UniProtKB/TrEMBL annotation:
The chain crosses the membrane at residues 26-42, 145-168, 174-191, 221-239. It is a multi-pass membrane protein. The lineage of its organism: Bacteria, Pseudomonadati, Pseudomonadota, Betaproteobacteria, Burkholderiales. One of its GO terms (cellular component) is plasma membrane. Pfam families: AzlC (PF03591). Its main location: membrane. Keywords: Cell membrane, Membrane, Transmembrane, Transmembrane helix, Transport. Belongs to the AzlC family. It is found in: Cell membrane. One of its GO terms (biological process) is L-valine transmembrane transport. This is Branched-chain amino acid ABC transporter permease.
Length: 243
């Protein structure tokens, strides 16, 4: 079979039932992406980014928090070392998220596993794991469900950040309507689906407390790394206490 036909078959196979289910479940999150994507695109436009450059920013670095930080810190000429350091710091949580996801992707060749990890964001990661827990059986993680959700979220983010750059000055302060609560609301719903009782969730609360204290006491985005590392360490210690 010619290579282009093989690729077409592979792409088409993504749209089977699990992928459609993932895309359907991601629709509310995709709607929550829209106002933030429009604002980010408009802010990038005000900093001199063209409508061709914005999708490169949001498509190659699929991490909303680090993109907002990069735009806020952007100057002419840009301070590249500062931008790289801040992007790494804010995206450092993806190292831990990827480590959690890696066992579910270990059986895949790199040409499939790496794109799956590239498309990972907080929401698709949580949705994929919540779906796996809901299935309650070994190997419950459904890659096609995860990819359906991930592709929908990725395309929404890139498209609407580009649209925000095109609309530019027409974009008003959408956060004045309280739309910044969309992401916390989504995470609360996802966490509810992953809730297994207080004892298994102790690392969540420790991570939350450490992140909140760091946010209030240390300038910058150090609270991201502090919350992630404290959650990881506490999860390891609690797991060790059971052995």
């Amino acid at each position: 079979m010619p290579i282009f036909l093989q690729r077409l078959v592979t792409m088409t196979s993504l749209f089977n039932f699990p992928a459609r289910r993932g895309l359907r479940d991601a629709l509310p999150v995709m709607a929550g992406f829209i106002p933030f994507a429009l604002v980010l695109g408009a802010q990038a436009s005000s900093k001199g980014f063209s409508p061709m450059e914005v999708p490169l920013l949001t498509g190659l670095n699929f991490g909303g928090g680090s993109e907002f930080a990069a735009i806020a810190l952007w100057s002419s000429p840009p301070q590249l070392a500062l931008l790289v350091a801040m992007t790494f710091l804010i995206n450092s949580r993806h190292l831990l998220m990827g480590a959690v996801l890696a066992p579910h992707l270990r059986h895949l060749p790199k040409r499939q596993a790496l794109p799956a990890l590239f498309l990972m964001c907080d929401e698709s990661w949580a949705m994929g794991l919540a779906d796996a827990q809901a299935r309650e059986k070994p190997g419950g993680f459904n890659l096609r469900y995860y990819l359906g959700a991930s592709i929908g979220l990725y395309m929404t983010w890139v498209f609407f950040t580009t649209l925000g750059a095109l609309l530019g000055p027409m974009i008003t302060d959408l956060e004045a309507f309280g739309l910044q609560m969309a992401f916390p609301a989504v995470f609360l719903v996802l966490l509810r689906g992953m809730w297994k009782g207080f004892a298994p969730s102790r690392p969540w609360f420790i991570s939350l407390a450490v992140a909140a204290i760091t946010y209030r006491s240390v300038p910058g985005a150090w609270y991201v790394a502090a919350g992630a590392l404290s959650g990881l360490i506490s999860a390891y210690l609690f797991a060790g206490s059971k052995r």
